[in-house]
Amino acid sequence: MALTLSIFLLVLQCAFCARYDPNWASLDSRPLPAWYDEGKVGIFLHWGVFSVPAFGSEWFWWYWQGEKQSAVTQYMQANYRPDFTYADFAPLFHAEFYNPAQWADIFNASGANYLVLVSKHHEGFTNWPSTYSWNWNAGDVGPKRDLVGELADAVRQRTNIKFGVYHSMFEWFNPLFLQDQANGFTTQNYVRAKTMPELYELVNKYKPEIVWSDGEWMAADTYWNSTEFIAWLYNESPVKDTVVVNDRWGNNTRCAHGGFWDCSDHYTPGTLVPHKWENCMTIDKYSWGYRANAQLSDIHTIEELITQLVTTVSFGGNMLFNVGPTAYGEIAPVYEERLRQIGSWLNVNGEAIYKTHVWTYQNDSVADNVWYTARTNGSTTVYAILLSWPEVGNLTLGHPVASRSTVVSLVGYPGQFKFFSPSSGGITINIPPIPAGQIPCDWAWVFRLEGLQNQNTKLDSFAFSKKLKALQMRKEFPKFQ
């Protein structure tokens, strides 16, 4: 018995002891660390020199000098001297009100379990004093601080949130990249001088537990040396046992390789996907970075954000909510409010989100705006999440099948609810009048269904794998609205 237990513990300890080769067949065989799937909710932060003009989006430089969009060009002509360059914005990136401890407390209140900070966007400016970005980094110009390191320290000291970094592989106007591009990506001078040295530096210095890659779409993973880096990340890096990566490592890797898939921004497949995936979306409907001229109508309501969260988790995804801090180093009040509202909802209903898995059905066949998740701990509990409160005193659900031991309750409200099984099937819950002061939350309500006859999840994996492959071949990914 003791020998058997020892062998079991050894196997458990070595779940991540395998040696991974620098090819996708080997890298994709690595189990996804459980914390990522269980966490479900993350915060994305787009912050950089683009936060100074705070106009249009984080693609400001490209729209100004790449595509030369008229709105951005007119904005510059109206507000800046004729010889003003994008580099002149960097000294104005003061971040004078940047308080990492305050940020960490806001993120903790949001209920998020992980954080992804943009360490470098496509403009090339690094938010840490990088050895490989001379005079175009937050240590040399602008804040003259280590923005990445300070936030990493605050988050780890004040919360249990996992700290991660976003890193753009390419830079719009970097001469080395442009030369590699002109050479048809047969040379790798930019990759050797910038992309890979920065990635190794980030991981060794800050030990992020997420490496969220982007800006890969112009060239294949072989140009970027992606598999070599990820093999090092999984085999030798200081975070080799816990780190997770996304799928943006070359123009041939999205929705195909990586620890979890993003596939596209605002990815909402509207179907089950046979791989862990993430929906990264902006709270500002039109930009990832901060926009000084954003209107309240441009900001997603809390109802819209909770709808995205619930539907995403019902289909097995994670939710990554994006906020753009100001150049002053502030989380604008409207974004702080949204994050705290998400946290207050999760504080009541988190058991229907965290550590859950998909159920046999994702949304109900009879009741509108009802979505399902499930949690298994010995027995399985099914959660029916209502995005709108029923107009009548009864709620009929088409998919749950009651048994003699079924118990129905409203998460955050005391007691059990009566129910019956209608002749048409499903279950009808009798909802008594609930005083306004006792309703557990203001948006989206969760019924806990225990002891259902059909509580255990049953999915036809082959069917939805086949469906996804057909969509991939046609390059179609349906959006859930």
Automatic annotation (TrEMBL):
It is an enzyme of class 3 (hydrolase). Its EC number is 3.2.1.51. The keyword Hydrolase applies. Keywords: Glycoprotein, Glycosidase, Hydrolase, Signal. PROSITE patterns: ALPHA_L_FUCOSIDASE. Residues 1-17 form the signal peptide. The keyword Signal applies. SMART domains: Alpha_L_fucos. Gene3D superfamilies: Glycosidases. Residues 362-450 form the Alpha-L-fucosidase C-terminal domain. InterPro entries: FUC_metazoa-typ (IPR016286), Fucosidase_C (IPR031919), GH (IPR017853), Glyco_hydro_29 (IPR000933), Glyco_hydro_29_CS (IPR018526), Glyco_hydro_29_N (IPR057739). GO terms for cellular component: lysosome. GO terms for biological process: fucose metabolic process; glycoside catabolic process. Pfam families: Alpha_L_fucos, Fucosidase_C. Belongs to the glycosyl hydrolase 29 family. Alpha-L-fucosidase is responsible for hydrolyzing the alpha-1,6-linked fucose joined to the reducing-end N-acetylglucosamine of the carbohydrate moieties of glycoproteins. This is alpha-L-fucosidase. It comes from Candidula unifasciata.
